[in-house]
Amino acid sequence: METTNTAKKAVSVCSWLVFMIFALAITVPLLAAEPDRDDAQNYGARVNRITNPCDPAIPSPPSAAAAAAIPCFTSQVFPPGTTTSAWSLDILWFNPVTEKVYMPDRNNFGVDIVDARTDTVVNNVATGFVGNRAAANSSGPNGLLVTNEPHQIWAGDGDSSVKVFSLNKNGDIPTFLTSVDTGGMRRADELGYDPDDQLILIGNDDPSDQFLTFISVSANKNNIKVKGKIDLKNNCPIGGCSTGGLEQPVYNHETGLFYVAVPQTTGHPNGEILVIDPKTMTAVNAFGLTDVNNNPIPCFPHGLALSPKQQLAVGCSADTNATYPTHPLVALVISAKDGSLVRAFNQVGGIDEVWYNPGDNTFYLAGANFTANGMTGGAANPVLGVIDAGNDADGPEFVQAIPTGASAHSVVAVYIVNPEKKHDFDSRKSNNDDIINKVYLPRRINSSPGETGGIEVIGRIP
Q1: Contact predicate 88/80, CB 8 Å
Q2: What's the structural domain count of the chain?
Q3: Domain span including residue 356
């Protein structure tokens, strides 16, 4: 996961197109448009950039009174030694139960909580996080998530700890509960939650650490403890030792397994998806990323998200190594059963975070490092990729690439159900009167002339 910020306002309202495909240097099946798909390229900015009195890069409260009630903290200058402050925001999380979005805000040493129904900040909580720091891979907070039973925020911090907060019923008032030391030298980063076994899995991705930690989940802080570890640096699991960090994990209730994107390993220099059994706290498989002819795809995976169809969207990054110094930038959809390739897409790549939205059955991929020619080393062309996850009758299909900005690496999708309506989540289509789908995309401050930062809200334009 990158520790960067996002920029440049997205504007993209396109007509129906048949996708133009350029030749890839690897043998992967690419998609053409299917006429019966709900794949109109009509995504774009839903609202203007939204800001806040506390910091010009977080959503604004609904009124002056609400703004006065929000504690404002002194925003750090970052990078250290400069005179400008680039807003440093990492992995976002949406909780559909409370309709809140949670944003790890390093400049303000805490977490910004946003009401997704109104697109307004409702709290800005700073409790014990290290914030922006000069040392590489030691800033925080980083990855975070919210559990509902018990109702808590879990966030990785730059001092190799995990901060845990209790939440009120509405999800907008956190109370610090405890801090768990994972025992590393650098940051505790991306994390996943297994509600079946009540376990958190979090990775320490820095080369000095390279391990995964299991932590028990409990409403009682005395029962929140490290339960086990997987060492990917010195005690290589199946697939080999990590040589390129640890990235986005996801838990699969149907299989009872964790899946972790590992950019490079000794066994798979192009990257792998490590499969972990939380009951034994051991790695049980490692999916190498290959095409239909079993040739390695230079992916270096960062983003990972799971659809109900038991398919994983893999966000391939722009990383390189001696084996693959220059390569096409792609996104993959693979089977969660055996890692076999379902589809590959060359319309988006250079990806960090990936999010699956059940509200519209769509994957959103933050291609901050995508390029104009679709190859590593090309001219910058950052985009937000939109891929229809498909259903039993058809497979995943590329929909649109929305221009974004440099370092637009984090994304979260939001769905809000009208309580007077019923919505079929097995359907790929959703109507405006029963559900609202939108995407939050953070943008960097001072990334370009006239750029003010903030949160871009993206969705289908009627």
Answers
A1: no
A2: 1
A3: 43-460
Type of residue found at 265: T
> CA 188 to CA 155: how far, in whole Å?
8
Which residue from 285, 343, 290 is spatially nearest to 313, judged by alpha carbons?
Answer: 343
Looking at beta carbons, which pairs linking 176-181 to residues 24 or more positions away fall under 8 Å? Answer: 176/127, 176/128, 177/152, 177/221, 177/224, 178/221, 178/224, 179/128, 180/215, 180/224, 180/225, 180/226, 181/226
Residue 254: C-alpha distances to residues 83, 194, 307, 311 (Å): 50, 11, 11, 12
Partners of 178 in the β-ladder: 164
DSSP string, 394-447: S--EEEEEEE--TT----EEEEEE-TTS---TTSS---TTTEEEEEEEEE-TTS
Residues 6+ apart with CB under 8 A from 10: 44, 45, 384, 402, 403, 404, 405, 441, 456, 458
Q: What is the pTM of this model?
A: 0.86
Residue entry with tokens 């800001």: 51
If we measure between CA atoms, which residue out of 429, 426, 458, 428 comes closest to residue 442?
458
Query: pLDDT tens, 364-392?
Result: 999 999 999 999 999 999 999 999 999 87
Task: Tell me if 229 is assigned to some domain.
Answer: yes
Residue 19 forms part of a structural domain? no
CATH number of the domain encompassing residue 325: 2.130.10.10
Quick: pLDDT tens for 219-275. Answer: 999 999 999 999 999 999 999 999 999 999 999 999 999 999 999 999 999 999 999
Answer whether residue 446 is part of any domain: yes
Does residue 211 form part of some domain?
Answer: yes
